[in-house]
Amino acid sequence: AKSRGKNNFAFFTSSMNTEVQNRLELENDLRSAMENKQLKLYYQPLFSSLDNRVVGAEALLRWQHPKKGFISPDAFIPVAEQTGLIHTLGEWVIETACEQVKRWQQHSRVDLYCAVNISGVQLLNRNLPENIKAITDRHQLTAGNLHIELTETALLTNEEDASNILEELHAQGIDIWMDDFGTGYSSLSFLKKFCAQGVKVDKSFIHDMETDEDSRGIVKAVIAMAKSLNLRITAEGLETASQVEQLREYGCDNLQGYYLARPMPAEQLSEMMIRLPE
Ligand code: C2E
Ligand code: CA
Ligand code: CA
Ligand code: CA
């Protein structure tokens, strides 16, 4: 038993070392990726459920690593948070997204909003409202052109500071949306406390809706709750025609998902909007 314990320990430390090493490597790679412009934003359109128009686009980070290929934001955002790189990275995302909204206004004559994901660590930066104001002013964007998406869990570490910062952003005219809604607390007081204007029903419930009655129940309950608070509702992760039909019927305001459009480079979205009927 003793020797097995020893082996287990040896195995444990070596796998820990690999994990630490991987994380360090990812951190270094991420630093140089930011310097060498290997990061890009893709944009996934959001459609109005009333007339199928594109009303906005969610900015999603893409990292094409020269050797390792595509790295998912779900893998590198946590590293960026742990190392503090998220602040520089997050501001680059907001700046780039705002620049793009302006470009769409000027060249494509469409007034879209851009939704940007903000992580918990990023939100707790006291200078965030000021920094965002400088960016929206610089690009002469109006209130409503920038939405931010936050998860409930991102708000839990320091609810007081988070709600103060969100109140400032709200006062600046920034729309605040609860992302992955239904997976966290999903309480009414939470939504009020954090000045939310809308919720995005999490894609996991949408995905399970057809096979699982509980998921369908959650989707309906979340929508009813949001409506009772006069919040707007986006359904994300729509992959089939029947999901689109159903969520439209349930009264969602905006629809998003692979069935309608995948995340794409900005130029591709510009082209898509030109081709869409008036
Ligand atoms: P999220 O904000 O919940 O974004 C939705 C994710 O679902 C995206 O994955 C999107 O590409 C994907 N998606 C869209 N439509 C469908 C669909 O119909 N079916 C399925 N299965 N998936 C769909 P992605 O781009 O890999 O991003 C993953 C997560 O990484 C995001 O989840 C967000 O939390 C985070 N993230 C991405 N970009 C940023 C960023 O700029 N800043 C921060 N802080 N987080 C980001
Ligand atoms: Ca999101
Ligand atoms: Ca989401
Ligand atoms: Ca998510």
From TrEMBL:
Instruction: Name the domain of life.
Output: Bacteria
Residues annotated as signal peptide: none
Residues of the EAL domain: 23-277
Q: What is this protein called?
A: cyclic-guanylate-specific phosphodiesterase
| Species | Reinekea marinisedimentorum
Q: Which residues of the full protein are shown?
A: 437 to 714 of 729
